[in-house]
User: What shape does this take?
Amino acid sequence: MIAELGLAALWLAAAFAVVQLLLAWGGARASGIEGEHREAAEAEMMRALRRVALVQGLLALLSFMLLIALFVRSDMSVLLVAENSHSLKPLMYKVAGAWGNHEGSMLLWVTVLAVAGAGVAMFERRLAAGTLAATLGAQAAIGLGFYAFLGFASNPFVRLNPAAADGQGLNPLLQDPGLAFHPPTLYLGYVGLSVAFSFAVGALVMRDVGPAFARAMRPWVLGAWIFLTIGITAGSYWAYYELGWGGWWFWDPVENASLMPWLAATALLHSVTVLATRDGLRAWTLMLAVVAFSMSMIGTFLVRSGILVSVHAFAVDPTRGTFILALLGLYIGGALALFGARVGTVTQGSTFQLVSREGALVLNNLLLSVILGVVFIGTLYPLVAQAAGVQLSIGAPFFNKAIAPVALALVAATAIGPLLRWRRDNLNALLGKLLWPVAAAGVAFAFAFVLTGASHLLSVLGIAFAAGLAVASVLPLARRSLRRTPLHIWGMVVAHLGIAVSLGGMVADSAFTLERLAAVQVGDNVRVGPFQVALAEVRPTIGPNWSAVEARLTVRRGEGKPFDLFPQQRFFNTPPTNTSEAAIETMLDGQLYTVLGQGDDQGRWQLRLWWKPFVTLIWLGGGLIALGGLLALVGRVRRERRQADAEIYL
Amino acid sequence: MRRVLIWLPLVLFGLVFALVASGLLRPGDRRVHSAMVGKPMPQLNLPPLLADRPGIATADFGKGKPRLLNIFASWCIPCIAEAPQLMKLRQAGAEIDAIAIRDTGDAVRGFLRQNGDPYARIGDDKTSSAQLALGSSGVPETFVIDAAGKIAYQHIGDIRDENVPELLAALEKAK
Assistant: This one.
């Protein structure tokens, strides 16, 4: 019964999306009516449109909640549950199982999309009625495509008859709290970008591109960007501690799929600010809004469909593949065609000189675009090669080499940009302000160079840039009353500082990590960096749905108090998989990372140890970046609200 | 120049679209295989789990007659569901061997008493190493090993009524 209700709610939501699209059409046309009836017609239409969008959001949400209920109840008469869950799974992973598969994640996607649309309808009051109507229409049109996909090709509520005795489980690698909530976080980001996309389409349709549109779009871009930042940071940390290989970024297509929209959103975030404050970069901002959402669609679907791993895997279900591809073509192609046809009518906004805040932001946008292009090409190139009959994969060496120099230039632009005035500035003033950051970079360079020698020149450079950016990013607070500094300035400072912190962590990890691989018997000692690690015992242990062998490592740092670490080799039955559970000790100056490997017949165990100085800064920086985004979002929303109030009481 | 730039994104997208579409529409083998299907059995030498019948060794296969190799465990619930179908296959003349995954002799004896006993040999795989070597992704799973000792067919999940003729056909083909 629950499954049927869920499906009914889904179809009803789709029906409301159709109504929303029609009403939006009417609303957008009504804004073209001249004369006395115009306002009344417009208001009537908008009221109806808002309600329809709200109901659509609630129905989609209901449908998704019902799917979660099916997973929680382990209803094995539903195909999706039987294939992706198991009655013995811990509750949290039953819930996460609802979106840890193709159909469920698509339903989550459409739910977030519909709820976001409802949010726009409820809270957006400052945009011209026609533009808002067109925006809600675009949002409904996107939703409709995915409702159709769910209904016709990817129904999550299909029954299984006869019911399975029990389910087949969930990939044990995914049984981790970090990963269970990783996809929803990223989806919130992706779908937030869909709203930005809809705003851009709405503005293009109504030829209404200006600061008001940018201000309406900005909170959604910020929100999406915050979730993407959190998602990427958490995903990186998950890969780091769960996969047991000690690395934190692999340039895997799945990782790139989340990085590409983030890069586009970062550029969009900065250009939308130029549009909102200075009415510049109109066409460019529209383009970025389209590109950002396109990247999230392309990324998600290329990964979900498995096309990047194998073209044949994509074709496992040809209907699905064709459907997805048709949607991609329709939305992205349609938006780009609309852009091409309409952007000529978007007049150029305000101009500015090269040495100015706008100039630095344009530079930032260009550098981000270059990085995005490199990632995009690197991710898709294996596909091109495959079309030519060559199997290859592109890995970290290519990406690191191609991106590192551009990233350093971007760091420099990030340091310089906030120190410039809007519209125009002079070079001498800028050089004066750069004194402290450059000095900090110089000192850091000298220190790092002495410490590591010439062998790690790129790392040394990275440390210098990180130090310079750290100092430069707090400079905008100098000579200001800290209490009266607007929140969005704090946001910028914190986010830029986060980049410096993160960069510091990345560089420290690549330059100073010490690794030790040893085969040891119980009682043996191994040294890594400042640590003495003894294998005290190896014993079996058992969890809710796995069994494991667990090592007890007694670690002593110099003369300090010894402590124990417990890395495991886990074995899951459904499906049978071995995983390494790393044991990690976090200290102020870094992490000791231990992995238990295979044992041999002579009672020796493989032990992998890493001492990673300051590696935690990578994710701490990611957290700071997200926090900066949050401060900016709160600051912007409060400011908008105050301005709206001020206008009412004028 | 500006006009060209405006349409450039659409052109680029068109190229990517065409690329993906060509990959999608290219005809190919659309079934998912275990990497081991079509290859000779991996080298296995599993000790017997029960005193009354032998364990599993690679040398036992490929003696001119195809055999079924069923991967099961007494703790696996779908294995109970597929037990009647295995009995049907046995009655239809299929010779069935088994690998018991992470199991004990007592538990398996109880399981066979309750659900029927179609097996000629039962190998004891305490560490799942044989299961991983076969490229099996779960319990239960059933392989058809052909007359020459090659893995001819893989059935993933429990055997249902409608799978019995499929497996018999696969056995016939593997002669």
Observations:
- The longest helix of chain B spans residues 2-25.
- Residues 27-32 of chain B have pLDDT under 50 and may be disordered.
- The longest strand of chain B covers residues 119-125.
- The interface with chain A takes residues 3, 6-7, 9-10, 13-14, 16-17, 19-24, 26, 28-30, 32, 73, 75-78, 80-81, 101-102, 128, 131-132, 136-139, 157-158 of chain B (CB under 8 Å).
